Amino acid sequence: MRKFKKGNPPDVTYQLARKKPIPIKCIQIDEPFTVETMEGLMKGKKGDWLVIGIHGEMYPIDNDIFVKTYDLIAEK
Fold first, then answer.
1. Which end of the chain has fewer CB within 10 Å, C or N?
2. Residue 66 domain-assigned?
3. Is residue 62 part of a domain?
4. Contact 44, 64 (CB under 8 A)
């Protein structure tokens, strides 16, 4: 079994890939909250986002991370 260590990627030729844009449901919460995730109970801060994935899984996302990685889209 090969082992890959953090900060030391293998010296190989890589392909490029782009993550598919999959619409998700989300809402910005205006108070601290907790949510049961697949990994266990997680906490969100005031202003963080509650995101519901394509299989109904829920998780909090820090507002700064949300703004950098998500674009809000208009519903059709």
1. N
2. no
3. no
4. no
